């Protein structure tokens, strides 16, 4: 009886530590907008890097022809071909091929990694050639999705700043990314023009904009989390004299590294960060994304175990967490199965199973609501939060709210229904129903790859 009381205390403390009342979310919204300003004002001015992408024209829907994309940035590497019909939303077809990256290539030499990429691409076009009569040596236009921090020098060139996500190829840091790829294509006898170098959020924004021209931002919530949006060039103070035909440019926020004292942080977050390979880095991401949520739950359950013996020794993963959380059977049979089969905890009474669901709920609710605050922070920065800011592109104050679309993608948002509901709900709560009517969160699919092919199209001389 006393043990149960101690466990309930752990849950209560967690709930209080993770509390995100709308007032606090609004403080986070303000902090995001302020940090965005600071990151745009000077290099290193904020934990938000606010990287220039040199993408100034998003796909219009008029693009025509066959374009390719390579998507590198996680465990899988993908090749795509997209056929565009020239009318909005008419992606005639697209083919995708997915390959795991051999682990030794992630920590080996630049040349080996890029030769592997070029050879997978070559096999892809060789197969296509037999079907369509496309000669192998014909010039192809390609967009390269390279989801690591890059200092761009143009829409199709940039220097790798550092590796993340388990990649560590030392001789590549500081090098021109596209030059490495281009050399590998040449060694493999392929004539490919890399017309765009982008990260996954920019690809998602491009696909979102292709389908709906009111799309102004894109958010990824998968293993990690990040966002990008369209900024006015005159607001990018750290790059004076930046001129684009559209007057705007896509900015890659690298928002996973956002930090503010208003974020509700618990001892589990502090410990998780200290035990991570990158302490004091990616603080926002560690409270939100799939790589960490299951780990926070594991730490809470472990703490409960230390206070009592209601669970055995356990480990957890985010998809299992989602399955437990969404178990709607009256006696929580799925929670029982997961605890038994995977965590090897047997005969857990119903009230303890309910407790596990509670922990998942608290951790996911906080994550989703913070992501929502991040999104509204972007809207606030660009005057689309209904607070009567400046209407994009014009200097006339206007309280009329324009239709505003945010593209969202990533395994956590797509597959975790409770996360999605909490996020959508919090956006409405922060903005108020009136304004929220004009804000649409739109899920895209394969945007990181398809979007890069679209950007290759809009930046190619053929369109
Ligand atoms: P990535 O971000 O690595 O490019 P995804 O966008 O597909 O790839 O996201 C994969 C992540 O999504 C996984 O690491 C996992 O944390 C999360 N995820 C996948 N499926 C589920 C699920 N059913 N419930 C909760 N999270 C999930």
TrEMBL record:
Which protein family is named in the record?
Belongs to the hexokinase family.
Membrane association type: Single-pass membrane protein
EC number in record: 2.7.1.-
Q: Boundaries of each Hexokinase N-terminal domain copy? A: 11-210
CDD domains linked to this entry: ASKHA_NBD_HK_plant (cd24020)
Q: What is this protein called?
A: Phosphotransferase
UniProt pathway: Carbohydrate metabolism; hexose metabolism; Carbohydrate degradation; glycolysis; D-glyceraldehyde 3-phosphate and glycerone phosphate from D-glucose: step 1/4
Q: What is the lineage of its organism?
A: Eukaryota, Viridiplantae, Streptophyta, Embryophyta, Tracheophyta
A single GO BP term for this record reads: glycolytic process
| A molecular function GO annotation | ATP binding
- Name a single GO cellular component: cytosol
Q: Which PROSITE patterns match?
A: HEXOKINASE_1, HEXOKINASE_2, PROKAR_LIPOPROTEIN
Which UniProt keywords are listed? Answer: ATP-binding, Glycolysis, Kinase, Membrane, Mitochondrion, Mitochondrion outer membrane, Nucleotide-binding, Signal, Transferase
Q: Please list the coiled coil stretches.
A: none
The places in or outside the cell where this protein is found are: Mitochondrion outer membrane
Hexokinase C-terminal domain: residues covered: 217-457
């Amino acid at each position: 009886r006393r043990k149960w009381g101690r466990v309930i205390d752990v849950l209560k403390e967690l709930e209080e530590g993770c509390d995100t009342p709308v007032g606090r979310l609004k403080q986070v919204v303000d902090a995001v907008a302020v940090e965005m300003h600071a990151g745009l004002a000077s290099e290193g001015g904020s934990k938000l890097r606010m990287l220039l992408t040199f993408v100034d024209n998003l796909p219009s829907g008029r693009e025509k022809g066959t374009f390719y994309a390579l998507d590198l940035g996680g465990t899988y590497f993908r090749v795509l071909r997209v056929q565009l019909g020239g009318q909005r939303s008419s992606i005639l077809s697209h083919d995708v091929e997915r390959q795991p990256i051999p682990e030794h290539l992630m920590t080996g030499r630049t040349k080996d990694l890029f030769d592997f990429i070029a050879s997978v691409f070559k096999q892809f076009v060789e197969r296509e050639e037999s079907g369509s009569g496309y000669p192998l040596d014909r010039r192809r236009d390609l967009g390269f999705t390279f989801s690591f921090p890059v200092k761009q020098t143009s829409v199709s060139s940039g220097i790798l700043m550092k590796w993340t996500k388990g990649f560590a190829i030392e001789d590549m840091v500081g090098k021109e990314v596209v030059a490495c790829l281009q050399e590998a294509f040449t060694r493999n006898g392929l004539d490919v023009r890399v017309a765009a170098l982008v990260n996954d959020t920019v690809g998602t924004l491009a696909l979102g904009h292709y389908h709906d021209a009111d799309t102004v931002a894109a958010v990824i919530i998968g293993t990690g989390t990040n966002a990008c949006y369209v900024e006015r060039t005159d607001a990018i103070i750290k790059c004076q004299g930046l001129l684009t035909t559209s007057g705007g440019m896509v900015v890659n926020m690298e928002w996973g590294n956002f930090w503010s004292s208003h974020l509700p942080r618990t001892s589990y977050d502090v410990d998780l960060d200290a035990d991570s390979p990158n302490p004091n880095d990616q603080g926002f991401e560690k409270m939100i994304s799939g790589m960490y949520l299951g780990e926070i739950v594991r730490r809470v359950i472990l703490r409960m175990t230390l206070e009592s013996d209601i669970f055995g020794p356990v480990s957890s993963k985010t998809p299992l967490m989602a399955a437990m959380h969404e178990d709607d059977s009256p006696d929580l049979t799925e929670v029982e199965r997961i605890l038994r089969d995977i965590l090897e905890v047997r005969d857990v009474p119903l009230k303890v199973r309910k407790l596990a669901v509670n922990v998942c709920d608290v951790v996911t609710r906080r994550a989703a609501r913070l992501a929502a605050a991040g999104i509204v922070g972007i809207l606030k920065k660009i005057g689309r939060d209904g607070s009567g800011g400046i209407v994009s592109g014009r200097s006339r104050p206007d309280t009329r709210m324009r239709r505003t679309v945010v593209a969202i993608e990533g395994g956590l948002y797509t597959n975790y229904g409770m996360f999605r509901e909490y996020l959508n709900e919090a956006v409405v709560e922060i903005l108020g129903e009136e304004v929220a009517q004009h804000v649409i969160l739109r899920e895209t699919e394969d945007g990181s790859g398809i979007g890069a092919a679209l950007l290759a199209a809009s930046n190619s001389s053929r369109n």
